[in-house]
Amino acid sequence: MFFAVVASLTLYIMDDRLDYFGQVRSVLSSVVYPVQVTATLPADFATWLSTFFQDREQLQERITVLEASQQLMSVRLQRLQALERENLRLRELLGSSFRLQERIQVAELLAVDSDPFSQQVILDKGQRFGVYVGQPVLDAHGVMGQVSEVSLFSSRVVLLTDPNHSIPVQINRNGLRGVVFGRGPSEQLKMDYMPHNADVRVGDLVVTSGLGGVFPTGYPVGVVREVRFPAGKPFAEIAISPAANLGTSREVMLVLPGERIEFDLPEPLVELPEFLGIEEIEAGGAQ
Amino acid sequence: MATTAPGRNVSVIWFSLLLALILMIIPLPETLRFARPEWLGMFLIYWAMALPQRVSIGVAWFVGILMDALSGTTLGVHAFAYALVVFLVARFHLQLRQYPLWQQALTILSLVLIVQLILLLASSMTHQWKVWMPAVTSTVVWPLVYALLRKTRRAFQVS
């Protein structure tokens, strides 16, 4: 027993305090990867079954809907590209640098539960796909979190709602900066340390500010749901509901670091985001 | 049974522990996530009670490290919790075997509470009542686990 106590304590302290101990973790995670894959089998089988028994009409209907939304998106994208180019030109005039569109890699969640005390999910891409610790993770609607641990075949993502997670943001309307903290499962996020006179209103969109260097600038984090100024407390209480579908998204996007633009770079501006490791999107799934 | 060498078949223990590890991470609906029974803890307790010479503190510690890697807790947390529980069980395994099933289940309740307490101390989550749910569900399913594992042990003549 004595040895077990000493060994546990040593490991605990080393894992907590030493940075390079992450490699040991990553090896261990690679070792337990088969267990995780086995655990996903029942869920995968259920998805497969539901896909298998989907009839033709349903599928065709789905395709029509998807095509329509695809068209809508591409029209919007054209406008966005024009705007982006204009924005860059203006910034160039102002003499400030700006990040080019980030490149994006698609990954899928492993259907595995983690420690219920923390808000984490596991992705099916690891070191072999160049995933690294601190990499931002998005879904179709906004920021989900960041990679906290990478093994050979999988990686672990801390969600925005994790009590240990915080993210630098700004209010989209007026550029007011702040930090948003997680508060645990199925709770709203909170924006802390904002003074009583801060100009924050219900309905404001909160986006990443890009300060801190982990998250890229301008991705939606959430929407302000409640602003209170409790008397006798130094800071306002601001509740934010996350923009991303933290509970339901299956396909997520890993952002690869974008190159910083030099000032005479007119050429690659209209490049579409490059999709590495695209997965075939399953025809099934929830309706 | 045609089992030739009585007194071995230790692989059955490892296989059951592997199964418990899988049960610990198999996805549950959001509402049930906090009520997941402490499968691994119960399996370890059973084996430590039935065959204390096979499942020792070392085994519990090793499996705990794997569980830490699986659940993303700081390394050593589950290892410590399981080692402690198995230590207690090994200490009192002779009494435990004599207990009627309901009394065993109550013992499980307190042992799983110990595990939960250690996990809670190591996490940064604020306290909520549902944190203690696994202890209750574990108590409820213990008779089932006990019966199944005893059947397995006898069928394979693990010793």
TrEMBL record, chain A:
GO terms for cellular component: plasma membrane. GO terms for biological process: regulation of cell shape. Involved in formation and maintenance of cell shape. The keyword Transmembrane helix does not apply. The keyword Ubl conjugation does not apply. This is Cell shape-determining protein MreC. Belongs to the MreC family. Residues 111-255 form the Rod shape-determining protein MreC beta-barrel core domain. Keywords: Cell shape. InterPro entries: Cell/Rod_1, Cell/Rod_MreC_2, MreC, MreC_beta-barrel_core.
Automatic annotation (TrEMBL), chain B:
The keyword Plastid does not apply. Keywords: Cell inner membrane, Cell membrane, Cell shape, Membrane, Transmembrane, Transmembrane helix. It is a multi-pass membrane protein. InterPro entries: Cell_shape_determining_MreD, MreD_proteobac. NCBIfam families: shape_MreD (TIGR03426). Involved in formation of the rod shape of the cell. May also contribute to regulation of formation of penicillin-binding proteins. Belongs to the MreD family. GO terms for cellular component: plasma membrane. The chain crosses the membrane at residues 12-28, 40-63, 75-94, 106-125, 131-149. This is Rod shape-determining protein MreD. It is found in: Cell inner membrane; Cell membrane. One of its GO terms (biological process) is regulation of cell shape.
